[in-house]
Amino acid sequence: MSFPLLTVTAAVPAVGAIATAAVPAARRTAAKWLALAASLLTLVLAAVVLVRFDPGGDRYQLTESHAWISDFGVRYELGVDGIGAVLMALTALLIPFVILAGWHDPDAAEERAASDRRWRPTQGFFALILAVEAMVIISFLATDVFLFYIFFEAMLIPLYFLIGGFGDRAHSQGEEEGSRQRSYAAVKFLLYNLAGGLIMLAAVIGLYAVTADQLGEGTFSLQAIADARAAGELDMATNTERLLFLGFFFAFAIKAPLWPLHTWLPNAMGESTAPVAVLITAVVDKVGTFAMLRFCLGLFPGASEWATPVVIVLALVSIIYGALLAVGQRDIKRLIAYASISHFGFIVLGVFAMTSQGHSGATLYMVNHGISTAVLMLVAGFLISRRGSRLIADYGGVQKVAPVLAGTFLVGGLATLSLPGLAPFVSEFLVLVGTFSRYPAAGVVATVAIVLAALYVLVLYQRTMTGEVKDSVKHMPDLRPRELAVVTPLIALLILLGVFPKPLTEIVNPAVEHTLSDVEKHDPAPDVEAAK
Amino acid sequence: MEALIGLLVGAPLLGAAVLLCGGRRLDRTGHWLGTALAAASFVIGLILFIDMLGREAEQRAMHQHLFSWIPVADFRADVAFQLDQLSMTFVLLITGVGTLIHLYSVGYMEHDERRRRFFGYLNLFLAAMLLLVLADNYLLLYFGWEGVGLASYLLIGFWQHKTSAATASKKAFLVNRVGDIGLAIAVMLMFTTFGTFTFGPVLESTGAAGEGKLTAIGLMLLLAACGKSAQVPLQSWLGDAMEGPTPVSALIHAATMVTAGIYLVVRSGAIFNASPDAQLVVVTVGAVTLLYGAIVGCAKDDIKKALAGSTMSQIGYMMLAAGLGPIGYAFAIMHLVTHGFFKAGLFLGAGSVMHGMNDDVDMRKYGGLRKYMPVTFVTFGLGYLAIIGFPGLSGFFSKDMIIEAAFAKGGAQGWILGSCALLGAAITAYYMTRVMILTFFGPERWSKEGPDARHPHESPKSMTIPMIVLAVGSVGAGFVFDLNESFVHWLEPVTALEHGHPPMSAMTITAGTVVALLIGVGTAWAQYGRRPVPVQAPRGSLLTRAARRDLLQDDFNHVVLVKPGEYLTRGLVYLDHKVVDGFVNGTAASFGGLSGRMRRVQNGFVRSYAVSMFGGAVLLLAATLLMRAV
Amino acid sequence: MNPVNYLYLAALLFAIGASGVLVRRNAIVLFMSVELMLNACNLALVTFSRMHGNLDGQIVAFFTMVVAAAEVVVGLAIIVSFFRSRHSASVDDASLMKL
């Protein structure tokens, strides 16, 4: 038996979480270093997976398969394809930065818990982050629907505590109101995602019933279902397929989040600390869009095509609506949350455009949006922690006193507005082209977002960073070495992937061919076969 | 030789990276590093130019493929360069004028503590602009296109502590982004129509595509060009962009970046040639803008804004020429180059004047400066003569050609366009004479004592030398270009050449141009030279007042776009909170209410529980019996 | 005698017990009513046993008696301790668990 590389990759953060949680109360700093070490080890393992992955090889590689609950055909099946590989790498890449950026985040909870020695917020905070990482990685690697479902749902538990237990202290209406808002956000997040998960559970059971009915014994294995479909043994009734599709899609659309199921995101991102907000939007939400690509399209190709017009419209509404709302926000973190909703609209648009460019673009978009939002959000977090306010109006002229902070914030902003040369441009343009080649009108509408994105980013930058230096920011220190260490590698990566994204596209392209063949689609041919 | 092309972009890019990331250590030497790298790029450009001249006209284009940028299925975007005569012209203009302006900035920005960063931005601009003109496909061009937009944003807002500068830079970026929508859609249309967006294949196979598609591509390209080149209806940003330091106005907002739109139209000539509808829109935009800019330029008292109006108007000329098709392309580029010389020179002169006048820009508070700044006066004067088209100077040749070509369009269109161009020439002469008289002639109107006292003086050498070089260019370029039609033939392999046939002789048109010039100069002299100029601007006629407000363009945008946009976003924020979120919260609340009501059944009285138990038992019993009976 | 008459008696006793449970508040009386209902059931069980000619009903009746005895022990203990803390034997006072 070969070495279970994927299991180990997912297990390292899980073990790290347990170990971090077990550190005695007095050794807080040791817990931080332990968590950082675990996340770095995960990053190394993820890099090994990327290197071992052969883009030209089988669809799922490094596979592991063990019987788990044999009565229901549930198997512990892991495997990595190009799309899962890059997203797993993104997760492993971002977590060390999240941990480093959140180095002092639990201090507030630590003060509150000072009298009670049993309660160890620092250990808890970093253990929860590692737990989320482990679950997200398993979700990207699971090729068994049931296995995926379990971790897709289980993620909610650590996230609930991260949002509710370690909120942002910078609240304009005082500590008590802040605490109320925080628990509102945490409960809202939990209920939304739980509702989606329950409906998905019904669809998961339905999938079992259908496979049990048609194949003799029920299965949740993607590979088995694909093989059965290819052999003509599995042929879902149209209505069944559509209902099952809707059950899955609903859960993913909440997680993604797609308009009009988006309202939990601004609350959750606004009330949690910046690193947790990054964890939510840059890592966890990607599971939603990733699952659309893998499960909705892979399991229910016919229904996906049936739903495409509606989904495209929802995606377009998300894009424009999210951008317009971002323009109207007064709170920095909520602004970034609405911008993310707009970007998730692009990802969904790319997924359902069903072209090579759309799918590759959507996958790259997930990676690039993760990095660019991390930069913007983390720098915003550094800014907020200095002044203790999330309101845009409380800032002004920061550029003069903290030029490096302002500069990195601008780079994050420019990445968010998809400036060529930075990574998000590549993915956004691919999504636009992919959409345009099949649905020209949708492509044109989505293009409007490039102006709106510039509007919300530049207005934010102008109001916070330029103009007269406000008294409240006069003595603001510039980025500290720890903060620079967080931001600089991410910015370097944004530039690298913007100018030379080929290493990523080489991994993603073959996987995209597979997803396209799942839905039996081909790229539209150009009008004129131009002279080569 | 091909390998050198990448270095053209690489040198300034390196400079930008080093200067922006290098930190305080480079504060003392950074500006010289930036200037040296700009000059290096110019030298490489010269080497390539000499190499190019040594070859046959048809063999001159060079290619360099660096690496594959975004490969996904049939979508192939490469980082590859194409250096042909058109690109070469731009390369020399950009690096040449760019180097001079770097040199000028060394003196101009001497007292600015952020000078190192200024040079970093300037180098970044050069790199992006060179990328724009050297790209061999539209997506890479788009890269450079947005890159110059970014550099322009950073440089307009260089003095960020001024709210007006920050606002102006944001406005410039946003308006340009509206244009970028056009370029993005054009690239997407090309991809779906031709399956590629590389210049060669696209431009060679226009014959096979439908005219509707080509018109759509053309109009989208024009939208992009309007944004970048400040043409109506996306012109509103250029006036505000004068908030940036003057060298920036000279380099980016006069000589190079704003002409990128012309480059785009001329480069895409094959597409426009195949679509007369698109061409008609191009000439209309050009004609409207050339008059619009000229009128605005007449009313401004701010020297830089008057020159900005003039820039708009001159680019209108180029756009007009580019819309005429093969009879105009070469002249559009020729005017672009001569304009690059004289307008950059004029801006540097204006900067020199401001330098000596404590950064005051109000021309009504100038006057009689020729005695104090002789070099500035002479170089500015030569630029002035060139732009109004004084016979023998560069502007005369290039502008005269465009007017001829406009008449040669033929029919009513030709007459209308030609007349617009002639009228524009007269107005140009008027407003430039006005600038000249207000600044250098007449009584001295600035205060000589008190806190606002001005002590005009000539600028240092590092500033005057670039002005002298540009003045020489303004004088000589036209004559050199016109010699044996050398410039037109140089560009011929790229733009193709057709000779237009105006409805009258070339001499008549030239005479008409000279008459228009004299009328313009005479009117300005009558108004400002013979009569004293009030320091406070008079109320002026309705047209003057409108022109001072840029012909109400900002008011129009405010009413039509900004205000409704504000209401829309505010409404949506309210809607998101009350309706979308309200619906969800409402669902949650109704569940809460329902359970509250159901809770009341549990009232804590044993008897009521017993009743429900007995009731249940009776019901079960009844049901059982009923089932039996049935 | 017709065994059905015993059933009528059992039904009557049960109804009396049930109405006692429903209308009385005193815990002791309530308890007695519950006992009455249990014994009515016992009577019915014994009658059925007789009617069907087997011993099943009588066996179940014994079970009922055992359960009733156990119930009395626990129930009376609860009532006594409740009376001690509340000085009342009314069941309406025992609503602490109601939210």
Automatic annotation (TrEMBL), chain A:
Gene Ontology terms, cellular component aspect?
endomembrane system; membrane
Describe the location of the NADH:quinone oxidoreductase/Mrp antiporter transmembrane domain by residue ranges: 142-452
Localization recorded for this chain is: Endomembrane system; Membrane
* Regions crossing the membrane: 6-26, 33-53, 82-103, 124-142, 148-168, 189-210, 243-264, 276-300, 306-328, 335-356, 362-384, 404-427, 439-461, 482-500
Which InterPro entries does the record cross-reference, listed alphabetically?
NADH_Q_OxRdtase_chainM/4 (IPR010227), NADH_UbQ_OxRdtase (IPR003918), ND/Mrp_TM (IPR001750)
Q: Which residues form a coiled coil?
A: none
Query: Mind telling me which Pfam families this protein's record contains?
Result: Proton_antipo_M (PF00361)
* This protein's record includes keyword Transmembrane: yes
What molecular functions are annotated in GO for this chain? NADH dehydrogenase (ubiquinone) activity; NADH dehydrogenase activity; ubiquinone binding
What are the recorded Gene Ontology BP terms?
ATP synthesis coupled electron transport; electron transport coupled proton transport
Its placement in the membrane is given as:
Multi-pass membrane protein
Instruction: List UniProt keywords, sorted A-Z.
Output: Membrane, Transmembrane, Transmembrane helix, Ubiquinone
Q: Which family does it belong to?
A: Belongs to the complex I subunit 4 family.
According to UniProt, the name of this protein is: NADH:ubiquinone oxidoreductase subunit M
Q: What is the lineage of its organism?
A: Bacteria, Bacillati, Actinomycetota, Actinomycetes, Kitasatosporales
From TrEMBL, chain B:
Write down the Pfam families for this protein, in alphabetical order: Proton_antipo_M, Proton_antipo_N
One Gene Ontology CC term in the entry: membrane
What stretches pass through the bilayer? Answer: 31-54, 89-106, 118-135, 141-160, 181-202, 246-266, 278-299, 372-394, 414-442, 463-484, 504-526, 606-627
NCBIfam families from the UniProt entry? NDH_I_L (TIGR01974), PRK06590.1 (NF005141)
Q: From which organism does this entry originate?
A: Streptomyces oceani
| Cell location | Endomembrane system; Membrane
Q: Name one GO molecular function term.
A: NADH dehydrogenase activity
Membrane topology of this protein: Multi-pass membrane protein
Which segments constitute the NADH:quinone oxidoreductase/Mrp antiporter transmembrane domain? 135-421
Keyword check for Magnesium, yes or no.
no
| GO terms under biological process | ATP synthesis coupled electron transport; electron transport coupled proton transport
Domain NADH-Ubiquinone oxidoreductase (complex I) chain 5 N-terminal, by residue range, is 69-119
> Which keywords fit this entry according to its UniProt record?
Membrane, Transmembrane, Transmembrane helix, Ubiquinone
Q: What is this protein called?
A: NADH:ubiquinone oxidoreductase subunit L
TrEMBL record, chain C:
In alphabetical order, the GO MF annotations are: NADH dehydrogenase (quinone) (non-electrogenic) activity; quinone binding
Swiss-Prot/TrEMBL GO biological process terms: ATP synthesis coupled electron transport
- Which EC number(s) does UniProt give? 7.1.1.-
Any transmembrane segments, and where? Answer: 6-23, 28-48, 60-83
- One Pfam family from the UniProt entry? Oxidored_q2
Q: How does it sit in the membrane?
A: Multi-pass membrane protein
Catalyzed chemical reaction(s): a quinone + NADH + 5 H(+)(in) = a quinol + NAD(+) + 4 H(+)(out)
The record's listing under InterPro entries reads: NADH_UbQ_OxRdtase_chain4L/K, NUOK/Mnh_C1-like
| Location of the protein in the cell | Cell membrane; Membrane
Tell me the function of this protein.
Answer: NDH-1 shuttles electrons from NADH, via FMN and iron-sulfur (Fe-S) centers, to quinones in the respiratory chain. The immediate electron acceptor for the enzyme in this species is believed to be a menaquinone. Couples the redox reaction to proton translocation (for every two electrons transferred, four hydrogen ions are translocated across the cytoplasmic membrane), and thus conserves the redox energy in a proton gradient.
| Family, per entry | Belongs to the complex I subunit 4L family.
Q: What is this protein called?
A: NADH-quinone oxidoreductase subunit K
To which species is this protein native?
Streptomyces oceani
